[in-house]
Write a structure and sequence with these properties.
With 484 residues, the chain is of the alpha/beta class. The protein has 4 domains: 3-83, GMP Synthetase, Chain A, domain 3 (2-Layer Sandwich); 112-304, Rossmann fold; 310-382, Helicase, Ruva Protein, domain 3, CATH 1.10.8; 393-483, Chromosomal Replication Initiator Protein Dnaa, Chain: A (Orthogonal Bundle), CATH 1.10.1750. The protein is built from 21 helices and 9 strands. The strands form 2 sheets. It has a 6-stranded mixed sheet, sandwiched between helices. Helix 10 (255-270) links the parallel strand 7 (243-247) and strand 8. Helix 6 (158-168) packs parallel to helix 7 (191-205), helix 19 (439-445) packs across helix 20 and helix 20 packs across helix 21. It starts with a helix and ends with a helix. The structure holds adenosine-5'-triphosphate (ATP). Adenosine-5'-triphosphate binds next to helix 7 and helix 14. This is Chromosomal replication initiator protein DnaA. Residues 364-484 are annotated as: Domain IV, binds dsDNA.
Length: 484
């Protein structure tokens, strides 16, 4: 692909981001990649079928329009699902485990294959378990590169890593220390890596049944089992696991699927089996879940993995280069170039991986040494300007609720007692002043209120802030907390 096309793609993403807003962009488009551009057709890819169908049914025209804004000749967007195994590899050595990436459980009901037709990695350590081809249970095997050995620990992920290691090394029958473990972080900060590392380690332990599923596969498995009337088998498989790992929970869809997820969660926790969940937001911000599930999720250990510091980025790069060198001995990236990438590519692990893959490809294809000039040219589009931190309404609600000792549910409720009314008005005022949301949208996010109620709250607080210094200072302190 030419630099020109990449630059155009970066501009198209910029248009999309501006049109749909950061939240929607990072939920649906952050993992969309440009595969090729032909005269009238642009080929894009996403990692999952779920993303593909969602984007096709909700955003197809917008994506096309954004392309046409850059390149009027484009008539068609071709969206495909890229396979996990096709990702350009900066390969790490296979983890030292004799267990196959995917094996069929001896005890899993035969319907398992159809129940999960589509994906999910089942890591099972039973030594006698017969190996099955990945297709026999459907789905992508765990990525052999995503292990604890390749997970670099830094300030932003120490706690999540320690919790993951602890539960990965537990034995069947050990008391469960925190259940569920709920890990949340923005795109590309290592959630999948951590969950798959747990699956690999559980697999190597050889004693417990560990099931790794993306939420999308959970939905798919459940819906297929309904269609084929094998829901009982579906439930049995889930509940017969010792450790259930659910990735990308924010993608869980559908009322009956939520109910099934809720039953599974309760049944697993009540039976003392470990559940680990990863999502891009904290449990309280998962809008579609009912309050009981949300509070069950929040009732275990909730850990956020923050953005990478420069040190961590550099260490990740160094470890990637070391892995790559085991296959490409002449791949040499001078220390100043690595330091430059660590300083400039700040967004997430995927961009770091992308930057190194480009240098590796360049070095393999041209045989030329990697210089600073080359690196600057190759990774130009991965260097994103630091955007001011965007504040989310859910964050405002969470922080205001905590400060005034009420629950977020209180803020959204119809309660009119003074201890709830004032914090609610403050939260609405902050939502109006710190986000770009409209009054009706804010009203909707505050329990379906009318926009005039929001307007009243905003005016009320504006009036009070002018007269009440203590309140003004308090609101400034909340703003600082939100923008830190
Ligand atoms: N601490 C880390 N050490 C080494 N590599 C990391 C680390 N964190 C992330 N990465 C790498 O960054 C890339 C993206 O990570 P991963 O897929 O786990 O992110 P994610 O949080 O699951 O993203 P998403 O929200 O898009 O699902 C992967 O290549 C992963 O190996």
């Amino acid at each position: 692909m030419t630099n020109n096309q990449q630059e155009r793609w970066t501009r198209v993403k910029g248009r999309l981001r501006a049109e749909v807003g950061e939240d929607i962009f990072s939920s649906w488009f952050a993992r969309m990649e440009l595969e090729s551009v032909e005269t009238e057709t642009v080929r894009l890819s996403v990692p999952t079928r779920f993303l593909k169908s969602w984007i096709q049914s909700h955003y197809a025209e917008r994506v096309l329009a954004c392309w046409q804004g850059e390149e009027p000749l484009v008539r068609r967007i071709d969206l495909s699902v890229r396979s996990a195994m096709m990702r350009p590899a900066v390969a790490a050595p296979r983890p030292a485990t004799s267990a196959p990436a995917v094996v069929r459980s001896e005890t899993a009901p035969a319907h398992f294959a159809t129940a999960f037709g589509g994906s999910g990695g089942f890591a099972n350590g039973h030594a006698a378990a017969p190996a099955a081809s990945p297709d026999a249970i459907g789905g992508s095997p765990l990525d052999p590169r995503l292990t604890f050995d390749t997970f670099v620990v830094g300030r932003s992920n120490t706690l999540a890593h320690a919790a993951a290691k602890q539960l990965a090394s537990a034995r069947r029958g050990d008391p469960v220390m925190f259940n569920p473990l709920y890990v949340h972080a923005s795109v590309g900060l290592g959630k999948t890596h951590l969950l798959q590392a747990i699956a690999w380690a559980g697999n190597a332990g050889g004693e417990r049944r560990v099931l790794y599923l993306t939420a999308e596969k959970f939905v798919y498995g459940f819906v297929s089992s309904l269609r084929t009337q094998t829901t009982l088998a579906f439930k049995e498989v889930l509940r017969a696991t010792d450790v259930l790992l659910i990735d990308d929970l924010q993608f869980l869809q559908g009322k009956s699927t939520f109910a099934e997820f809720s039953h599974t969660l309760n049944a697993m926790i009540d039976a003392g089996r470990q559940v680990v969940v990863a999502a891009d937001r904290p449990p309280l911000d998962l809008e579609n879940l009912d309050d009981r599930v949300r509070s069950r999720l929040a009732g275990g250990l909730v850990v956020e993995m923050g953005s990478f510091g420069e040190d961590l980025r550099l260490e990740i790069l160094q470890s990637r280069v070391a892995s790559a060198r085991s296959h490409h001995a002449d791949f040499d990236v001078p220390a100043p170039v690595l330091a430059f990438i660590a300083r400039s590519v700040t967004h997430n692990g995927r961009d770091l991986e992308g930057a190194l893959n480009r240098l590796l490809a360049h070095s393999k294809l041209t045989g030329q040494p990697i210089t600073m000039e080359l690196a600057e040219r190759e990774i130009r589009d991965l260097v994103r300007p630091q955007e001011p931190r965007k504040v989310k309404i859910e964050e405002i609600q969470r922080i205001v609720a905590r400060r005034y000792n009420v629950s977020r549910g209180d803020l959204l409720s119809s309660r009119r007692t003074a201890n709830v009314v004032r914090p609610r008005q403050i939260a609405m005022y902050l939502a109006k002043t710190l986000t770009l949301r409209s009054l009706p949208e804010i009203g909707r996010r505050f329990g379906g209120r009318d926009h005039t109620t929001v307007l009243h709250a905003v005016r009320k607080i504006e009036g009070l802030v002018g007269a009440d210094l203590a309140l003004a200072e308090e609101i400034e302190a909340i703003k600082r907390e939100l923008q830190d």
